[in-house]
Amino acid sequence: MDFDASVYPYGSHREVVYGRRGMVCTSQSLAAQAGLDMLKKGGNAIDAALATAMCLTVLEPTSNGLGSDAFALIWTKGRLYGINGSGWSPARLTRDELLKRGYDQVPLRGWEPVMVPGAPAAWAEIHRRFGRLPFEELFEPAIAYARDGYAVMPNLAAMLADSLASFAPYKGEKIFQPLFDTFFPQGQAPKAGDILKLPELAKSLELLRDSHCRALYNGELADAIDAWSR
To answer: What is the C-alpha separation between 100 and 176, in angstroms, rounded?
Structure first.
């Protein structure tokens, strides 16, 4: 049977969905389920959003990642809060340093465009101020999917294929080798339905869980990133 999971030939369409006790919507159904599980455990909307965001770093890493920023608008108890979780640029990456390296603008690839990730710190701060469930509990679905694996959805398969094509010219370069080892170990992108396991990401998430995300800034993950960048 010739089956292509990325093709949907039927005439059906999406419908409006209603929920009385809560709702979580994402482009990845497993992440949405993780957020809904937090609501079922007695968590609030902030807990659900954080668990969902953590899951998306695993389930849709092409669009979300531990190295990303995070921005949030939170309405609670009659007040609106805004969280700017954008990370700083490296302290030693000055305009003069970029010019000295031959750049007249920040390049798209390499270490120069990498900033200090803001998302994990934002998660911890948002939970500290607004969360209800234990912070550690929010990580469990993401860690389980990273450690045990999950079926790749058609949209992720397409995005990983695009990423492989974009980064193919850099194969063999040391700085990009971990990308190929992690997502393209067989030299090709996972197809829809393939099981993708990310055990190293599971370990990183465990370090973030146990340190309330400080490991990324002044702990084991920070040391590893610093050493690799040098």
So the answer is: 23
- How many of the other CB atoms lie within 10 Å of CB of 107? 12
Distance of CA 104 to the CA centre of its chain: 30
Neighbours of 220 (CB within 10 A): 14
Q: Write the Ramachandran bin of 100: left for phi over 0, alpha for psi from -120 to 50, otherwise beta.
A: alpha
Task: Pick the closest to residue 123 from 193, 78, 71 (CA basis).
Answer: 71
Helix (H, G, I), strand (E, B) or coil at 25: coil
From first to last of the 230 residues of the chain, give the pLDDT tens digit: 677 877 878 887 777 888 888 999 998 999 999 999 999 999 999 999 999 999 999 999 988 899 999 999 999 999 999 999 998 888 888 999 999 999 999 998 888 998 999 999 999 999 999 999 999 999 999 999 999 999 999 999 999 999 999 999 999 888 889 999 999 988 999 999 999 999 999 999 999 999 999 999 999 999 999 898 88
